[in-house]
Design a protein that fits this description.
Number of domains: 2
Number of strands: 20
Shape: globular
Number of helices: 2
Helix content: under 10%
Strand content: over 45%
Order of helices and strands: HEEEEEEEEEEEEHEEEEEEEE
CATH topology of the largest domain: Immunoglobulin-like
CATH superfamily of the largest domain: Thiol:disulfide interchange protein DsbD, N-terminal domain
CATH class of the largest domain: Mainly Beta
Largest sheet: 6 strands, antiparallel
Structural class: mainly beta
Length: 284
């Protein structure tokens, strides 16, 4: 694929100027990686029941027409990897993933990820919350159009609890799926899943059937992950959606298994209109 390098240079300059103009929160300088610009954001502390946790984010601005991937990339792609080992006064960093979308390419493959721009919210636990934190990120990811470019971004940011609020982090956090726990008494969404063995003697028509028992009304989509990275499940196919309920199936013939015939549990991410939910359910 051929690129207009002058156009790419002008785009990068425009993006850098736009990012540099936002001085409402602590942020690192944008760094170019693949067909994207990456920077770190910090926005003071969040409310927790124990020690203060700093809020932060990784902002990725993509060249128009390019995409990057969710933690499970779908039919093809490279999930992002985050290395914080060079950080100072940091005990733990949790990366949150905004709800992704399906992206179909010209070959018929469907990936799971983001277009245009994505901010991964962070929850940063400091060893000593009274002292400044230096966050050093080495991010390995991919930017893709008709071809994929492996990319690595290295950047750092020093901040403290005095970091001012960043509105874009608020918006990114709203897009992170609401986590539903097994003990939630009135969950906003509930599911059941079972394995249908099919009629083929070789098991080639086996599939997982997932039903939403309760969910907000809206356009549905579903992403399913196995219990670990050994499992690569096909993207769920929507069979039926009506009256706020939906039925999805996952053909197992096109899935890559772990150490069992079927995964013992599933990690589900449901998109229902403008809302998103995440939960784990056992699989019979």
């Amino acid at each position: 694929m051929h690129f207009d390098r002058l156009g790419s240079t002008l785009l990068s300059a425009a993006l850098l100027a736009a990012l540099a103009g936002n001085a409402q929160a602590d942020s690192s300088q944008p760094v170019a990686a693949g067909e994207a610009l990456v920077r770190l954001l910090a926005s003071g502390t969040g409310d927790t029941n124990s020690a203060p946790v700093f809020r932060g984010g990784i902002e990725v601005v993509l060249t128009p027409g390019w995409k990057t991937y969710w933690r499970y990339p779908g039919d093809a792609g490279i999930p992002p990897r985050f290395d914080w080992s060079g950080s100072e006064n940091v005990a733990h960093v949790e990366v949150l993933y905004p709800a992704p979308k399906r992206i179909t390419d010209g070959s018929g493959q469907t990936s799971i990820g983001y277009e245009t721009r994505v901010t991964f919210p962070l929850r940063i636990t400091a060893k000593d919350p009274a002292m400044p934190v230096t966050l050093r990120l080495k991010m390995d990811f991919a930017t893709c159009d008709k071809l994929c470019i492996p990319a690595q971004a290295e950047t750092a940011l020093t901040f403290s609890s005095a970091a001012t609020q960043e509105p874009s982090l608020d918006e990114a956090e709203k897009r992170v799926p609401i986590r539903i726990g097994p003990k939630d008494s009135s969950p906003p969404a509930a599911f059941e899943a079972r394995v249908e063995r099919g009629k083929a003697a070789d098991g080639s028509d086996r599939r997982i059937v997932i039903k939403t028992l309760t969910a907000p009304a809206g356009k549905f989509d579903l992403f399913a992950e196995g219990p670990d990275e050994e499992w690569t499940l096909s993207l769920p196919q929507l069979l039926e959606a009506k009256a706020g309920k939906a039925i999805f199936v996952i053909p197992l013939a096109d899935s890559r298994f772990g150490k069992a015939d079927v995964p013992p549990k599933l990690r589900l991410t449901l998109i229902a209109g403008k809302q998103a939910f995440e939960t784990e359910i056992p699989l019979d």
